[in-house]
Amino acid sequence: MQRADLVVEGIAALVEAAQRLLQYLVEQCIVEGLRRPVAAGGEGAPLAPAFHRACFGAPGRRRAIVNIGGIANATLLEGETLVAGFDTGPGNTLLDAWSRRHLGADYDAGGAWSAEGTVIPALLDGALSDAFFQRAGPRSTGREHFSDAWLDSLLAAVPDADPRDVQATLAALTAQGITRGLERAGFRADEVYVCGGGAHNDDLMRRLHRALEPARLATTQALGLDPDWVEAAAFAWLARETLAGRPGNAPAVTGAAGPRVLGGIYPGSAGGRWVVSGSGG
């Protein structure tokens, strides 16, 4: 199945969810943020870079804002100018899946388990040979690609691997995906700020620190916004832009033909202005 087909399926599911939600809300709901960038020939995601520019851009600073959710993405900022934004590959999705399989836990708290392991070079090289990591320019991906089945296909080459070493390798994959993404974009950041669940993974943050030196590495808390709140704030900002009739996408990020007002506005039963925004980061 093609990426565009999966996006369309996701949009359809969001529209249905919005209709159900509106049965319980008296206010309005904004969804379908992906639809117009896709219709304009773009990737659809990530959507957060325009917010990252508005919130974190600063004159004289070369910053990368890295969101590590299920999938990781990076926003590159030269001062207050958005240079680029793109998915970098798996963030927490494979780490969490492997933890569920072997620890019976939803995630590897603090990266303590991956810190006990040793990276398996053959497994890491095999993962990084995936065509996604060879792409330049606007790019997005999802769990439909970096899935359990994808990981299992790579593990066939190392059938006796220690689960801890696999976890360490998956942490290295997330870190390498991010650092290689910045390198492929030709962007040398002076400051890198992390948000999303991955900001709480101490082992992953240590790997990023080593790979990104001499750049400063911190979470977005250092810029005044809790790393757990950045994505929610981004969608609230995008919803505000939609209500104001202003474009919320960044064509340089998604490859869309031009600026687009994002989302559809679905009025609630009382016609108020309570807003829910969705459709991916």
Give an account of the 3D structure.
With 281 residues, this protein is of the alpha/beta class. It has a domain at 58-221: ATPase, nucleotide binding domain (Nucleotidyltransferase, domain 5, 2-Layer Sandwich). It is 41% helix and 14% strand. The protein is built from eleven helices and seven strands. The chain has a five-stranded mixed beta sheet with strand order 4-3-2-5-6, with helices on both faces. α4 runs antiparallel to α8 and α8 crosses α9 (202-212). The chain starts with a helix and ends in a 15-residue tail after the last strand.
Annotation keywords:
single chain, 281 residues, alpha/beta, Nucleotidyltransferase, domain 5, 5-stranded mixed beta sheet, 11 helices, 7 strands, 14% strand, disordered C terminus
Q: In what range is the share of β-strand residues? A: 5-15%
The CATH first-level class of one domain comes to Alpha Beta
Average pLDDT: 82
- At CATH level 2, the architecture of one domain is 2-Layer Sandwich
Q: What is Rg?
A: 19 Å
The number of helices is 11
Distance between the termini: 21 Å
The stretches of 5 or more residues where confidence is low (pLDDT under 50) are 1-14, 36-42, 271-280
Helix content: 40-55%
**Order of strands across the biggest sheet?**
4-3-2-5-6
Q: What is the tally of beta strands?
A: 7
- Topology order in helix (H) and strand (E) letters: HEHHEEEHHHHHEHEHHE
Q: Largest sheet, if any?
A: 5 strands, mixed
What overall form do the CA principal axes indicate? globular
Output the structural class: alpha/beta
CATH superfamily of one domain: ATPase, nucleotide binding domain
**At the third CATH level, what is the topology name of one domain?**
Nucleotidyltransferase, domain 5
